[in-house]
Each structure stands twice: as C-alpha cells, then as structure tokens.
C-alpha cells in the first residue's frame, strides 16, 4: 500500500509539473523597438613582444604567457546613423594587415556581408570599407558600412 502511495505521489508531481509549464508567456520583441545601431568601432592588433608584461599570475603562483589586445585606432569612430556608416581612423604608422575590428552595437547580432571579415578576428583590412547587417530584437535590420581610414 505504501508503495502505491509513493507511485501515485510521483505521478501527481509529474502531472502538476507538466501542467504548470503549459501556459508559456511569449515575449513581445516589438516593445524594444529599432536598436540595430552601431555606437562605436575600434581597431586592434595582438601583441606578444614582451614576455614579462604578458604573464598572467594565477592563485597558485604559476604563470601563463599569452597575447594581449592593443587598440590601434584613434578615439571614437564617427557614426552617421542617418546613412548607417561608421568611419574609424587607424593610428599613424600602423599597418592595415594583421588587425581586427570590434563593433560596439545595440542590436542582437552583427552579420558580415559581401565577404567582410568577422569582427574580433585578425584580418587584412586594407580594402577600407566593409558591410555588416545589424539585427534588432524587434526584427529590424540595418546594413552598415564601416570605413577604415588612416
């Protein structure tokens, strides 16, 4: 008899759990509005020249060497929200090869278009102009052009 009560209690718990999960609340993504905007772009390179400054110390006092990301663009990018363009200036003396770009945005996703390099990955950016599609939570998209000048 005790075993039947335990089985019934277990069955009742499963039924109640499934019933409580049934009415899902759908999130209204339109409430967020159009947020497919870029607010800054930076250029960076990876530096591994000086071993002492690159060491990371852990709690157990072991060290690991690695690379660090160094910003090679000057200031804040010039953003034109009306035309969906961003212009970022590479520092004097820096090369367009072996640098990457970081895109700061309000959207939910940034997608490279027409062979543009993936943001955050080191590439050759000597072409100077790249297109990206920025997605907003409400489904709005804007195609942005990022210009890299020196």
Features:
150 residues, 5-stranded mixed beta sheet
Describe this structure in words.
13% of the residues lie in helices and 35% in strands. The chain has one helix at 2-21; strands at residues 38-47, 56-57, 63-64, 68-71, 78-80, 85-89, 100-105, 109-113, 129-135, 141-149. The longest helix is centred in the N-terminal third of the chain and has 20 residues, at 2-21. It contains one helix and ten strands. The chain has a domain at 32-42 and 73-149: Immunoglobulin-like, CATH 2.60.40. The strands form three sheets. Strands 5-6-10-9-8 form a five-stranded mixed beta sheet, with no helix packed on it. By secondary structure, it is mainly β.
Brief overview:
By secondary structure, the chain is mostly beta strands.
